Structures are given as structure tokens and as C-alpha cells.
TrEMBL record:
Annotated source species: Poecilia formosa (Amazon molly)
Boundaries of every S-adenosyl-L-homocysteine hydrolase NAD binding domain copy: 337-498
Segments for region (Disordered): 103-149
Composition bias type Low complexity, residue spans: 120-132
Name under which the protein is recorded: S-adenosyl-L-homocysteine hydrolase NAD binding domain-containing protein
Keywords: NAD, One-carbon metabolism
InterPro entries in alphabetical order: Adenosylhomocyst_ase-like_sf (IPR042172), Adenosylhomocysteinase-like (IPR000043), Ado_hCys_hydrolase_NAD-bd (IPR015878), NAD(P)-bd_dom_sf (IPR036291), S-Ado-L-homoCys_hydrolase_CS (IPR020082)
GO BP, one annotated term: one-carbon metabolic process
NAD as UniProt keyword: yes
Length: 578
């Protein structure tokens, strides 16, 4: 055994070198090989596996029916046929490749409906709801009507409604809380008589929320809070279902405000509830139609930007109605902001840039719940993460999570990617852009596009090239280029999709907040901003536990008395930080 082992695993030093090295492959040698005779080629072709011979025999029996009733062909005939088949097959393949290569591009027909189609194609009907290239005329100029005769809407193409309905059906399967609300409260109609005007992202998930509100008795009119996040097919399905929707993907700024104005419809329809995401709808009504606040019972707001605006109005004594702060509810902060961003940041970046994250130096501006989710996802793929923060508590959390806390000015020169998650304005300025390396990717995961100073980039010296939908290359005079995604707007909903399940948590919280404001007795809520009751947060969370087959432990009377709480909750005081 030892001898055999030494013979096999001997050192390469002991091996004898050959006396003659192989001759070089020269042009003369190539010409000699090309002069091989046809007989030699036939001999090489014959040396094939028995499997190939059986395949040739089977093929021959199909190709030559006159042999079926006769004796099997001779071996010599088989050899000749085999060699000829090999040569013929090679020629056919080559000709097919040449023909395919030489084909001129023709006008593309409609592409199949598929989730795997690249988002970079403008005419795909993918789940991100990209703009269709079939009709580029402005939706305002196209008279459209649903199968039931509804004309009070403005979308891209009502014919996409069947596909949008499939998207909504899929989303419903991942949103158990809203389905339970429909089942439990559908008979009671707690929103009967409510007129809800909404301005949110119009996706399959928000469509489930809108249709849930309608099932609970509300009349709804809707506009989009983001010019890039609308899924056109979903908007069509909502319109076909009787919801007045005014939104399409790729709106201009003027289109955006036009849609909100049409959605409010102050001359013919007076809302009594507002569901807002970003505060644009509330701000528009406050400036253009202040008289509507006399009939409003309340506002439900779910974004940092919108809540900031509401607190400003409240502080100035200009908030005319009660408002529910959904953004700072536990179910929104700890689930939507954290887990939704954690799972969708990578999807948005991959779809738009095809970037590989391993080893990339990424600066994340802000380490709130959104920033935490983004950092966790990027770190898991091997990116080198730096964090910028103004809050020392959040900065310390980042340090304890193993991240380096720096200022943006310190890390901007070496950053491969900059992601804003602050909810603030002018976080990334022209000074930062000028110091970026070529190829740096810049995007925003906050609600508003104010975090990136785009105004300073729209100058004559800089050139903007749209290379993909929602992907712009900004080119400096020296050739440096920076990649800007979604024009600084919310990346995940503008360039990809988000998980239905985690949005189910936020949507259920919004629905319960609307029900609470609409049914609250007079005097319960003043003209101020309120957080949702803790009991409501716990109820929303409990609606989602069956999806995980989770079983919550029940307190005994003695344990509940010891803690000084009800055995049915709420289990934490309002000041508790989860």
C-alpha cells in the first residue's frame, strides 16, 4: 500500500521531462490539417458511442419507411449514413446560426405577460407596473370608460384591468389582516357613509386596502403619492371595480397635482376622511380647499414627512381636525419601516443597476428603522457599511452593530453607493456630488425626494442620460458619471416591489385608524396629532400570528395582577420602547 501511494503521489520534481516538446501550432500545420482526406474524416466520424449508433438507427427507421418491411441495412451503409449525418448536422447548425445572426430586427410585437421580463423594457406589463409604450398620449386626453360605464377616473389604460386583478388577488393571499377585517366587520359596515380621499402608493397591496375600505362601507377616491410607484394595471383594476383613481406611472409634476385636484373633486364630492402618505393631499386641501376641513372627521398619515407637516400645523395652531400618526405606531415602525426596507432595498438596486454588493463601500445616511433594515440587508451580502447620523443614540446603535459612523464628507470620496434614509432635506448636496467617484450610485429610501439636492444638478454643465427606466447617468465635463435612481424618489416602490405580508401590518393599522376616527364620539379627539392606542397595535399584530402557526402564552390572573395589567392587554405601557 505504501509503495502504491508513493507511486501515485510522488513529487513533481522527480518526474522526467520529455525529450521532445510538442511542436508549435503554426499556419503551415493548420494548412496540413485542412488537407485531410474525406476518408480520414469518415474514419473519425465512425468512432462514436454505441448510444449514438442506436439513435441513428432509430432516426433512420423514421426517415426511410421503405426499410421497415425489409432486412436491416448493412453495417457499411450505417457507417456511411452516420458520417454523412454528422457532417450534415454540423452544416445545418452552422447555417441556422448564420441565419439567426443575419436577421434584421423587426417591429416587436406584444410581449408575454411575465414577472421575469426585465424592468428596463418600457413595454412590459410586469408587477412593477411600468409604463406601456403602446399609447404614449397623455391619459388626460384619452376618454376611457369601464365595462360598467364609469368615466370618473384617469389612468394609463383601462384594458390592463384583468392583469391588475390578478395582481390584487395574489397580494390578498399575503395580507391576512385585511381579509379578516372584511370577514369580521363586513356585515357591520363600520365605514358606512364615510367618504375617504386617499393619496398613497397605488400598488397591488394598497389596492387590497382600498377595496377593504369599500367593503366596510366607504366611498373612495384615490391619487398617487409618488410619480413612479403606480402600477398601471392595478390602477386599471381599481377603476374597473368602481374606484375613482387618478394616477399612472411616470407622471410629471404638473400631472401629479392635477391628479390630486381631480381626486379631491371639491365641486361635486366632499370627503370626510383623509388617508395620506407624505402630506401632499393634506397640504393641497389646506391651501386650495380649506372649506373642506369643516366636514372632515380626521386625517390618517403614515410617513415621516407627512407627520412632520402635521406637527408643524399643530404647533402653529392651524390643524383644524384630529390626525392619527400611523408612522410612529409600533406596527409601522418595527415591521414596515424595518423589515419591508430590509427585503426591498436589494431588489430595487439589483433591478436597476445589476450591481454586486460584495466588497462595495456603502454610505447609509440615517440609522432609524429604515436605515437599520437597509444596513442589515447590505451587510448580509458582504458590503462594507458606513453610517451617518445626527442622533447620538442611533449612532451608538450603529457602532454596537459593528458599523463605522462617519460624516458624509469623510466617506464620500470612497463610496460606491450612497443611500439616504433620513426624511430630511438636502442630505446629499452638489458639494458631495462633485467629490464622488465615477460610477457612484445614489438613491433614496425615504418618502420624499428632498433628501437629494436635485436642483443643483440641473445645470447646463451637467448632462443627464436616461439609460433605463428610473436610471439616470449624470455626466460631469471631465467624463465622471454618477448613477441616480428614481430621480431621488423612494427606491423600493419606484423601481421594484415590496412584500405583501409586511404591508398588511401597516394597511390594517391604517384601516383601524380610519374606523376609530370615523366612529369616535364627539370630543374624544381634539385638533391635534394622536398615536394609535397600544391595544390597537397589539390587535393588528395578533391578526398576523396565525400565518406562522404561532401560539401566544396567556397570562394567569395571578401573573396579570402581579404586573398590574389586564390579562388581555395592553401588555406594555405607552412609554415602552420595543
Amino acid at each position: 500500500m505504501a509503495k502504491d501511494k508513493n507511486q501515485i503521489g510522488g513529487s513533481w520534481v522527480d518526474l522526467a521531462l520529455p525529450e521532445d516538446f510538442p511542436e508549435l501550432y503554426t499556419e503551415e500545420r493548420a494548412e496540413e490539417e485542412e488537407e485531410d482526406t474525406e476518408e480520414a474524416a469518415k474514419d473519425r466520424a465512425v468512432k462514436c458511442s454505441p448510444t449514438l449508433l442506436r439513435m441513428l438507427k432509430a432516426a433512420e427507421s423514421r426517415w426511410t419507411p421503405h426499410f421497415r418491411d425489409k432486412a436491416e441495412p448493412s453495417e457499411l451503409w450505417l457507417k456511411a449514413t452516420e458520417a454523412e449525418a454528422l457532417k450534415t448536422n454540423m452544416k445545418i447548425q452552422f447555417n441556422d446560426q448564420q441565419e439567426e445572426f443575419n436577421k434584421l430586427p423587426t417591429k416587436a410585437g406584444p410581449r408575454p405577460l411575465s414577472h421575469s421580463v426585465s424592468q428596463s423594457s418600457p413595454d412590459t406589463f410586469s408587477s412593477v407596473g411600468s409604463v406601456s409604450s403602446e399609447d404614449e398620449s397623455p391619459p388626460q386626453e384619452k376618454p376611457q370608460k369601464t365595462s360598467k360605464g364609469l368615466t370618473d377616473f384617469c389612468i394609463k389604460n383601462i384594458k390592463q384591468a384583468p392583469f391588475g386583478r390578478k395582481e390584487i388577488d395574489i397580494a390578498q393571499q399575503g395580507m391576512p389582516s385585511l381579509m379578516i377585517l372584511r370577514k369580521r366587520a363586513g356585515g357591520e359596515k363600520p365605514l358606512a357613509g364615510a367618504k375617504v380621499v386617499g393619496c398613497t402608493h397605488i400598488t397591488a397591496q394598497t389596492a387590497v386596502l382600498i377595496e377593504t375600505l369599500a367593503a366596510l362601507g366607504a366611498q373612495c377616491r384615490w391619487a398617487a403619492c409618488n410619480i413612479f410607484s403606480t402600477q398601471n394595471a392595478v390602477a386599471a383594476a381599481l377603476a374597473e371595480g368602481g374606484i375613482s383613481v387618478f394616477a399612472w406611472k411616470g407622471e410629471s409634476e404638473d400631472d401629479f397635482w392635477w391628479c390630486i385636484e381631480r381626486c379631491v373633486a371639491a365641486d361635486s364630492w366632499e370627503p370626510n376622511l383623509i388617508l395620506d402618505d407624505g402630506g401632499d393631499l393634506t397640504q393641497w386641501i389646506y391651501k386650495k380647499h380649506p372649506s373642506l376641513f369643516k366636514k372632515l372627521k380626521g386625517i390618517v398619515e403614515e410617513s415621516v414627512t407627512g407627520i412632520h407637516r402635521l406637527y408643524q400645523l399643530s404647533k402653529a395652531g392651524k390643524l383644524c381636525v384630529p390626525a392619527m400618526n400611523v408612522n410612529d405606531s409600533v406596527t409601522k415602525q418595527k415591521f414596515d419601516n424595518l423589515y419591508c426596507c430590509k427585503e426591498s432595498i436589494l431588489d430595487g438596486l439589483k433591478r436597476t443597476t445589476d450591481v454586486m454588493f460584495g466588497g462595495k463601500q456603502v454610505v447609509v445616511c440615517g440609522y432609524g428603522e429604515v436605515g437599520k433594515g437597509c444596513c442589515a440587508a447590505l451587510k448580509g451580502l458582504g458590503a462594507v457599511i458606513y453610517v451617518t447620523e445626527v442622533d447620538p443614540i442611533c449612532a451608538l446603535q450603529a457602532c454596537m452593530d459593528g458599523l463605522r459612523v462617519i460624516t458624509l464628507s469623510e466617506g464620500i470620496k470612497h463610496a460606491d453607493m450612497v443611500i439616504t434614509c433620513t426624511g430630511n432635506k438636502n442630505v446629499v448636496t452638489r458639494e458631495h456630488f462633485d467629490r464622488m467617484r465615477s460610477g457612484c450610485i445614489v438613491c433614496n429610501m425615504g418618502h420624499s425626494n428632498t433628501e437629494i439636492d436635485l436642483t443643483s444638478l440641473r445645470t447646463s454643465e451637467l448632462k443627464w442620460h436616461r439609460v433605463r427606466p428610473q436610471v439616470d447617468h449624470i455626466i460631469w465635463p471631465d467624463g465622471k458619471r454618477v448613477v441616480l435612481l428614481a430621480e431621488g424618489r423612494l427606491l423600493n416602490l419606484s423601481c421594484s416591489t415590496v412584500p405583501s405580508f409586511v404591508l398588511s401590518v401597516t394597511a390594517a393599522t391604517q384601516a383601524l385608524a380610519l374606523i376609530e376616527l370615523y366612529n369616535a364620539p364627539a370630543g374624544r379627539y381634539k385638533q391635534d396629532v394622536y398615536l394609535l392606542p397600544k391595544k390597537m397595535d397589539e390587535y393588528v399584530a395578533s391578526l398576523h400570528l396565525p400565518m406562522f402557526d404561532a401560539h401566544v402564552t396567556e397570562l394567569t390572573e395571578e401573573q396579570a395582577q402581579y404586573l398590574g395589567i389586564s390579562k388581555h392587554g395592553p401588555f406594555k405601557p405607552n412609554y415602552y420602547r420595543y
